[in-house]
Amino acid sequence: MASLQDVADLAGVSVSTVSRALRGTGRVSEATRNRIKQAAESVHFTLSRSASSLASGKTMRVSIVVIDRINTWFNASAIQGAYEVLEPAGYDVVPRVVSTSEDLDAFVRHLPGNRNLDGIIVVSINLDDEYVRILRDITVPSVGLDARSRAGYSATVRVDEQVAMRQAVGLLHSLGHRRIGFVEMPNNPDFLLSAKRRSGAFLRAARDLGYNEFDLSVFEGQDFGHFRSFDEAVSQTSSRIIAQFRRPTALCVEIDDFAIALQYALRKAGIRVPEDIALIGFDDNSRAEMAGLTTLRQDPHRMGQLAAEQILQLMQGQVLAEPHQLLQTTLVTRQSTGAL
Amino acid sequence: MASLQDVADLAGVSVSTVSRALRGTGRVSEATRNRIKQAAESVHFTLSRSASSLASGKTMRVSIVVIDRINTWFNASAIQGAYEVLEPAGYDVVPRVVSTSEDLDAFVRHLPGNRNLDGIIVVSINLDDEYVRILRDITVPSVGLDARSRAGYSATVRVDEQVAMRQAVGLLHSLGHRRIGFVEMPNNPDFLLSAKRRSGAFLRAARDLGYNEFDLSVFEGQDFGHFRSFDEAVSQTSSRIIAQFRRPTALCVEIDDFAIALQYALRKAGIRVPEDIALIGFDDNSRAEMAGLTTLRQDPHRMGQLAAEQILQLMQGQVLAEPHQLLQTTLVTRQSTGAL
DNA sequence: CTGAAAGCGCTTACAG
DNA sequence: CTGAAAGCGCTTACAG
């Protein structure tokens, strides 16, 4: 396997010159550069990232931390977005999955001594105070994507949930719904996702529009471990909704996948959607259109790009013009809320 | 940032001993090991992968190459599967996207001199002869996942398309369909995906069951670039099908997403599914159930795990008991083929 | 069981 | 514009 030295010998120059020529840094004469490039080509030379990294102190690696799985609609889209801006800049994107608070703990605790990454993008994780302290003290920049709070992150990208919920509740209000509710997902108890913030935003938006406590209900998400399956969680939630005293005529559901399953379960139980209960989701994922689900569209792919742009600037030591970016959702109206 | 040397000083031993103790290699006394572990903890020590890599010659990195996007159902599931087995073994999984033949070319041509990965998993790419030659000569093992041919790869994992198509055609035959066809996807012209193999397998299966040339049709996939959008490709294909002389009463479609879109377009054009045309997809992806699509289920998540297990063994220099694994699909019957 | 030392393949001041 | 040399932080024979 050819090394810098081999290329240097071939081109009749020193390794320093080869290094400079290949990376386009420092002045190297046109002629020398060409000679070197040819020599490099001829032996299929590729820089050893390990050696470069060790010498330069930069790993050219950014880690993207996601909860539970890489292959969810949100996570995979965010990773793709980040990849699109990081790859052309020469960085490897290294996914890291955490499933339990121990996983996260191990990851965060190793951060202070970690020389294996130049930046971190963290998806849908809110940091408790201890982690905030650790993140603040490390030299590696971190960007929170879809985090509830800015705490601990050098920069954040998230969706404006308050405006989103105003859009949703506004639609329900204009359709004449007087009793409305919010349905939280079953959750991974080790992570405080965006659920609480989203239901809080829902309640605030509703009160602003004149709904009072008796007209509002929140179906709280339970620990996912309580259920044998996703389907069981859905049908249990469906039953709770149906049995509810002064049952709402419209529901905002935390995410599309749950809303879609719920719509199916409700209909199976004889509840008509949207006539008896109207439904609004959140995401506009790949199944929402087919399900005829009215929803709040967000764009994790774009969020991944933005987070990557931020981390890129931070890694270059730049000061961000807008470290905390708030994106707006788009209300997409479909059958699950009936005709406008 | 603490280095091995710092830990050694703290524990009062040499760096060699620290290195051995931390990695659990070589004999180190219980007492020494504990002292070292404590010292390491206390300064949040983490090994520098770059330095380890440079010294040991192993990068602890495996690249997974996918076409066009990370966030497709197939690709993201495969990556997740690979991650699950590679991460516990200490390897980073580094996704790499190729969109054009130039991308692939650049990647493959750099392989011979590449010291930046220990193994490669390549998804849905068939190698032409030149690449086969390059791959054969490099020292890094490669696993082909969903490749049409074994050529060039140290090992492969794929689905048995011949059996799959026999399942599908068998169902159509038993349902009494006498004129049947296969619909290819619009394709990325830079990559020869599995389309041709799949339609070939369809034709073989159909002939074996007694269908003759006049009863069979193949709607060939066109260069995706010809269309302004996916929807346009779909509606064009739909029109071709409808206009077909001696139109088939049942179609196998190359993948679910296209089948689902096609079902929608056909119905919109007044063709009843399954009464006028029955449809069978391929994948059983997350939308197939909702669409009521009969389909051939495959499991890219499992394929990713298997490919990772193979590459792991190859990287350890082991000889594979079964280098070429063929998985079976499961026929999942739903409304798009009517009642059995 | 432990240590001294060479070496992995680069980058980067420092000189010239 | 170019080169000699130090050094990045580890691993791994080699000795003892």
Description:
Chains A, B: Keywords: DNA-binding, Transcription, Transcription regulation. Chains A, B: Residues 2-56 form the HTH lacI-type domain. Chains A, B: It comes from Galliscardovia ingluviei. Chains A, B: Pfam families: LacI, Peripla_BP_3. Chains A, B: One of its GO terms (molecular function) is DNA-binding transcription factor activity. The structure is a homodimer of 340-residue chains. With 340 residues, the first copy, chain A, is α/β, with parallel strands linked by helices. The first copy, chain A, has three domains: 4-47, no CATH class; 59-159 and 300-328, 3-Layer(aba) Sandwich (Rossmann fold), CATH 3.40.50; 161-297 and 331-337, Response regulator (Rossmann fold, 3-Layer(aba) Sandwich), CATH 3.40.50. The first copy, chain A, is 42% helix and 17% strand. Chain A contains twelve helices and twelve strands. Chain A has helices spanning 4-11, 15-23, 30-42, 49-56, 73-86, 101-110, 129-137, 161-174, 195-208, 230-243, 256-268, 300-315; strands at residues 61-67, 92-98, 119-123, 142-145, 155-159, 180-183, 216-219, 250-253, 278-283, 294-297, 324-327, 330-332. In chain A, the strands form two sheets. A six-stranded parallel beta sheet of chain A has the order 2-1-3-4-5-11, sandwiched between helices. In chain A, strand 6, helix 9 (195-208) and strand 7 (216-219) form a beta-alpha-beta unit. Chain A is elongated. Chain A starts with a helix and ends in an 8-residue tail after the last strand. The relative contact order of chain A is 0.12. At the A-B interface, helix 4, helix 5 and strand 2 of A face helix 4, helix 5 and strand 2 of B. The structure holds a DNA duplex (16 and 16 nucleotides).
